[in-house]
Automatic annotation (TrEMBL):
Its main location: cytoplasm. The gene is PMVK. It comes from Physeter macrocephalus. InterPro entries: P-loop_NTPase, Pmev_kin_anim. GO terms for biological process: cholesterol biosynthetic process; isopentenyl diphosphate biosynthetic process, mevalonate pathway. Gene3D superfamilies: P-loop containing nucleotide triphosphate hydrolases. Pathway: Isoprenoid biosynthesis; isopentenyl diphosphate biosynthesis via mevalonate pathway; isopentenyl diphosphate from (R)-mevalonate: step 2/3. This is Phosphomevalonate kinase. It is found in: Cytoplasm, Cytosol. Pfam families: P-mevalo_kinase. One of its GO terms (cellular component) is cytosol.
Amino acid sequence: MIRWGEEKRQADPGFFCRKIVEAVSQPVWLVSDTRRVSDIQWFREAYGAVTQTVRVVATEQSRQQRGWVFTPGVDDAESECGLDNVGAFDWVIENHGDEQRLEEQLEHLIEFVRSRL
């Protein structure tokens, strides 16, 4: 499956992005799992300034406390870290284990989305 997806992306970087929005109209799109620079570029080209990027970050320690274990060949693949060196995101949500802080950050994001409806 991963190989097939990579082949599709190499032939047409916007293949999966177009599939998401094909024949559908929404006032706001929340695309929860972009993993590559080409995904962000596609949405910026297609939707321009209304595109907002959200990055969720967590320390390695907090991830390990949730049971995450680094797996070579998986966790260092482009699908997992292809956006690590992207410049600024419009929103950065810190998910380090502080539920109150997480809720506050998400509330700001939700308020922003509601203001665009």
